[in-house]
Amino acid sequence: MSDIYQFSAPRLSAEPEDFSAYKGKVLLIVNTASKCGFTPQYKGLEALYKKYKDQGFEVLGFPCNQFGKQEPGDSAEISEFCELNFGVTFPLYAKVDVNGETAHPLFNWLKAEAPGVFGTEGIKWNFTKFLIGRDGKVIKRFAPKDKPEALESELKAALG
């Protein structure tokens, strides 16, 4: 697959969404968790989303329970947690695996397009972020420790 528009995933509401709906937008795809030391990054992600959404920017959150079982809830619990604690309004998707045989095809593609440190493809922890350009191709992979506000200059460059 050559770009992100070939993929789809169900939202937390279970409604399927085809990523071709995001053509021409800059995306930040993040594997999230509600009980992680990086969970406060939801606040920074929401701030970036609100600041740049009118310029064609979307944050896409994918809850994942593969790291320390830090996303144990079901879709309703995840949605409520994100809204109540961080005011999240950006799109959230159904819980996925990001590594292994059951990894969502989107994350297999993202890892192949933007390997991590020393060329490793596996995602190491929650809140790994992938910046996608308006052309649907991966621009850069960011580590969990990279706070959303630290990505702003690269995001602004991608928005043009």
Describe the fold and architecture.
- Pfam families: GSHPx.
- It comes from Simiduia curdlanivorans.
- Keywords: Oxidoreductase, Peroxidase.
- InterPro entries: Glutathione_peroxidase, GPX_AS, GPX_CS, Thioredoxin-like_sf, Thioredoxin_domain.
- This is Glutathione peroxidase.
- With 160 residues, the protein is an alpha+beta fold.
- It has one domain: 3-Layer(aba) Sandwich (Glutaredoxin), CATH 3.40.30.
- It contains four helices and six strands.
- It has helices at 41-52, 75-86, 105-113, 152-159; strands at 8-10, 16-18, 26-32, 57-63, 129-132, 138-142.
- The chain has a four-stranded mixed sheet with strand order 4-3-5-6, covered by helices on one side. A two-stranded antiparallel ribbon has the order 1-2.
- β3, α1 and β4 (57-63) form a beta-alpha-beta unit.
- The chain is globular, with a radius of gyration of 14 Å.
- The model has no long low-confidence stretch (mean pLDDT 93).
Summarize the structure.
It holds the Pfam family GSHPx. This protein has about 160 residues and is of the alpha+beta class.
List the topology elements.
Blueprint lengths: L7 E3 L5 E3 L7 E7 L8 H12 L4 E7 L11 H12 L18 H9 L15 E4 L5 E5 L9 H8 L1
Parallel strand pairs: 3-4
Antiparallel strand pairs: 1-2, 3-5, 5-6
In the predicted model, the low-confidence regions spanning at least 5 consecutive residues are: none
By DSSP, the count of extended strands is: 6
Number of helices: 4
Task: Indicate how many domains the architecture comprises.
Answer: 1
The name of the CATH topology is Glutaredoxin
Strand coverage percent = 15-25%
Report the top-level CATH class.
Answer: Alpha Beta
Strand arrangement in the largest pleated sheet: 4-3-5-6
Largest β sheet strand count, sense and barrel closure: 4 strands, mixed
What string gives the helices and strands in order?
EEEHEHHEEH
Family: Belongs to the glutathione peroxidase family.
Protein name: Glutathione peroxidase
Pfam families: GSHPx
Organism: Simiduia curdlanivorans
